[in-house]
């Protein structure tokens, strides 16, 4: 979920945004670690040249999983079929667990930044492409999610970024004008989509740069 790009800062109307709308992975939560990826490959029983095929299937089949159109077992069945194999129920459960674990690390500095914004009276919200099993994990283990006035999760809305409907649904829940919202994401394409709807945008690279963009450094 990480994309190398030049920080875009904020745009649009001057002054602090009324709402800061955050992406999750690559911003507040960490991207997959090498150890997390290695565990997935080991759990799937994938070695050698088949690793490239595994990651191709993993990502190409991910959008319906993120949108809640298929659950974890169904997603891993699709991955297995793409690889020309089959995962039994035990291995499928282990893959769901390993996948969740690979996305479960968070950036403590960003968690503190979100908490600080909320404590200062700023409205914060979340717009995340996330499958149901991972959403449940975060809800169970991360009480700081309560800081977000709106948590718009793709697995429950059926819309994933950069689909305009994902942003529009979040704006409706917030009852906010697009121009009053600063959207923060690590992917340029997702920020462009937000700007196309009239939001301000910041391509995330670090907490320090975001603090500067927010005027809180």
TrEMBL record:
- Residues of the signal peptide: none
Q: Which Pfam families match?
A: Hydrolase
By its UniProt entry, which InterPro entries does this protein fall under? HAD-like_sf, HAD-SF_hydro_IA, HAD_sf
> SUPFAM superfamilies of this UniProt entry?
HAD-like
Which CDD domains does the annotation name? HAD_sEH-N_like (cd02603)
Mind telling me which PANTHER family this protein's record contains? ALPHA-D-GLUCOSE 1-PHOSPHATE PHOSPHATASE, FLAVIN MONONUCLEOTIDE HYDROLASE 1, CHLOROPLATIC
Question: What name does this protein carry?
Answer: HAD family phosphatase
